[in-house]
Amino acid sequence: MIIDKVQIISWLLTRRCNLDCSYCAIVKNYQNKPQSYPKIKHYIGQEMTTEYVIETLKKIKLHNPDAFHLLYGGEPLFRKDLPEIINFCNDNDIHYTIITNNTDAVQPMIEDLISKTSYIQGLTSSIDPLILDDDSETDNDRYKKCVAGIARLQKYKGKINDLVAEITVDNTNIDHLYNLVKMLTDMGINSDITTVDIKKNMYYDFSNVSDEKLLVPKSDKVKGIFQKIIDDKLNVHMADTLLMKIWDILPANLNCGLENNVHNMTIDADGSLRLCLRIRGVVTPNLKAYDGIMSNGKLHPSYKDFIRIDKQNYCKGCDWSCPIMSLMISEESENVDNLIHKEVRDGF
């Protein structure tokens, strides 16, 4: 196993967003939210500058040339410098996908990004499972906002290398997962599947969800849905290896082992390091992302110590699939080809 080599980096590029979803804490003034971000030369108000993002990307490239970057928000398209960041990634063979809500308000921003870049390596559109029992359901608002939005992007197939639907399911809509994945497969769109996570204590600052009844249970029914997706060879990212690993940790019992092997990194909008995407942590944010990797490409020695302290004090487990993938790559390096959808990239 490869120890202390970051395989996946999640960037909260901004906390700005055009939506105000009840389940998301990233863009809200939620209870116990950390104090205002420090205002130092690298930041514009509460956000990293373009220069800071690019210099940090260079450091990560030195640390691991094959690292994969998830560009989150808020809504990352709200950063006007995103074309510059994407062009830098393209020019330096940095693997990434942009995770967007892809609503009507964001579509013009995506089109603008496409016009200002040579290509987009990966674009991931958030989608919730829909009730699609008959054709009339394609007229409902959720369909128009989610499925129709990603369908409109298919016309940019020559510019968007890997167009993916990110489906987050909970216990109220798990029964509709198969039909949605089947529909997207028929449309020629790949899917990623995740399950809803909850706020287990005040330090889980990514989610506002607190109702455990929304968690997808570790049941035979859910296992059967996952297995049918696998058996029918629907277009789901790493379905054969990942879906049953997700089932294993349901409802929210992942122990990522970051304190023993730093295979995953999360960067907040102000440039500070987080314990993970789910938990900001208390001591980990004292280290800035640019400083988290030293000039020799090694992780800063304090980083692992900070993770150990925060994880021990504040983590109660989760069902975040990203660390499962980064741990899989640490165990078997060839899994990176599946992560970056190499078969799609090679055929681009």
The gist of it:
By secondary structure, this protein is of the alpha/beta class. The chain contains twelve helices and ten strands. The chain has a single domain, classed as TIM Barrel.
Question: Your description of this structure?
Answer:
The radius of gyration is 19 Å and the shape is globular. Helix 1 packs parallel to helix 2, helix 5 packs parallel to helix 6 and helix 6 packs antiparallel against helix 7. With 348 residues, the chain is of the alpha/beta class. The longest helix is centred in the N-terminal third of the chain and has 14 residues. The two termini are 31 Å apart. The chain contains twelve helices and ten strands. About 5% of the residues have low confidence. It has an eight-stranded mixed sheet. Strand 6, helix 4 and strand 7 form a beta-alpha-beta unit. It has a single domain, classed as Alpha-Beta Barrel (TIM Barrel), CATH 3.20.20. Helix content is 34%, strand content 14%.
| CATH overall fold name | TIM Barrel
Unreliable spans? 29-45
Number of strands: 10
- Strand portion, in percent? 5-15%
Q: Class by helix and strand content?
A: alpha/beta
Task: Please tell me how large the radius of gyration is.
Answer: 19 Å
In helices, the fraction of residues equals 25-40%
The largest pleated sheet is described as: 8 strands, mixed
Number of helices: 12
Number of domains: 1
- Note the gap between the termini: 31 Å
Quickly give the CATH architecture: Alpha-Beta Barrel
